[in-house]
Specification:
alpha/beta; Alpha/beta knot
Length: 212
């Protein structure tokens, strides 16, 4: 590996945001999930959660669209669940708050959220939104303010808008200059893992279910 390539890996690891993640509930289109992965990689998110509770989405493995993720799947861990409780138990062990896109009581604008906290952002599918069962695990709701005739966004676009707002807030506080979300030990371990994935040419297209 060239020194330039090694430096690239080091810079990527340094900017990984260990306390920011995305949760996708019953998102049917694998190309949308691939697009979300690509955007998450670009802002430094190192893992996401995919929760599929609808019967036709219940499967042992999920196969992601490599082309739409543009290689990001190789670098981002995907935690795949088909049961709500173990999924949110996992999330709450690692993140302090869960905010979801949902229009309900006390809904906030995306731009009024403090996204420098340890936070998971939950998105439902475009037709049904976040399920009532998942809402019970959330600490708050938010919407993306819009002024057009069509008051909705594609799920991958809504996710991109939201996590780039998180990146903007974190840039202001210097999270990308002096990363407070991963210790040096965690960064070193992540670098070793990424170098391993590179050397072994691991692509991680198939994701195994984690319910147990």
């Amino acid at each position: 590996m060239t020194p330039e390539r090694t430096e690239k890996f080091q810079n990527v690891v340094k900017n990984r945001q260990g306390n920011l993640t995305v949760v996708l509930e019953n998102v049917h289109d694998l190309h949308n999930i691939g697009a979300v992965l690509r955007t998450c990689d670009s802002v430094g998110i190192k893992e996401i959660f995919v929760l599929n509770t609808e019967p036709h989405l219940d499967q042992e493995h999920m196969h992601l669209a490599a082309r739409s993720s543009s290689g990001a799947r190789k670098w981002i861990d995907v935690n795949f669940y088909t049961k709500i409780e173990p999924c949110f138990e996992h999330i709450k062990k690692q993140y302090d708050y869960i905010f979801c896109t949902h229009l309900g009581e006390e809904t906030k604008s995306l731009y009024d959220l403090d996204l420098t906290k340890s936070v998971a952002l939950l998105f439902g599918n475009e037709h049904d939104g976040v399920s009532e069962a998942a809402l019970k695990h959330c600490d708050g709701n938010f919407i993306i303010p819009q002024v057009g005739m069509v008051q909705s966004l594609n799920i991958s676009v809504a996710c991109a808008v939201s996590i780039y707002e998180a990146k903007r807030q974190r840039l202001v506080k210097g999270f990308y200059e002096n990363n407070p979300t991963l210790s040096q030990t965690e960064q070193d371990a992540l670098l070793i893992d990424y170098l391993r994935r590179h050397e072994l040419k691991i692509k991680n297209k198939s994701v195994k279910r984690l319910n147990d």
